[in-house]
Backbone:
């Protein structure tokens, strides 16, 4: 009778499991800040999309109701929001973007106001004296920016 050696069993040793878990922990620790930045960026892009759709909705309402409509934006109590108002300044729609207002900036050029665009019944941007005005709104935050150009013809272009 010869010597019998124990059969080899498949599996990992305790030290192999500990090393694997340590490596996974290090990789997760390095990836977490990047993941957080990605989620902030995704929220910003979603908010920029909603801003654009709100701008277009205000324009559609002006055309369909054959009246002047104001698309107004700003920060209220730490929350960024936009409002769509009729010519009598009655709010028709609004949208809040919770928790991100401190990281965003909005700048405008060409419009008579820094916080709203008024659309005529033809869907064209106008100033207080009802003169057609071209302008841009730049929505910035999270290391990214979106620029919306509203042309005199009513075309809204997203850059």
Residues:
């Amino acid at each position: 009778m010869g010597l019998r050696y124990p059969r080899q069993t498949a599996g990992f040793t305790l030290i192999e499991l500990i090393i694997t878990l340590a490596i996974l922990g290090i990789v997760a620790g390095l990836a977490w800040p990047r993941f957080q930045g990605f989620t902030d960026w995704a929220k910003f892009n979603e908010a920029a999309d909603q801003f654009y759709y709100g701008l277009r909705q205000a324009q559609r309402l002006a055309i369909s109701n054959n009246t002047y409509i104001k698309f107004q934006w700003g920060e209220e109590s730490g929350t960024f929001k936009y409002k769509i108002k009729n010519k009598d300044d009655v709010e028709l729609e609004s949208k809040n973007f919770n928790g991100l207002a401190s990281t965003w900036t909005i700048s405008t050029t060409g419009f008579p106001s820094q916080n709203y665009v008024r659309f005529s019944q033809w869907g064209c941007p106008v100033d207080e004296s009802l003169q057609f005005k071209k302008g841009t709104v730049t929505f910035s935050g999270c290391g990214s920016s979106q620029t919306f150009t509203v042309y005199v013809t009513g075309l809204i272009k997203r850059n």
Q: What stands out?
A: The longest strand covers residues 69-76. Residues 108 and 137 are 4 Å apart (CA to CA). The chain is about 35% helix and 35% strand. The chain has a mean pLDDT of 83.
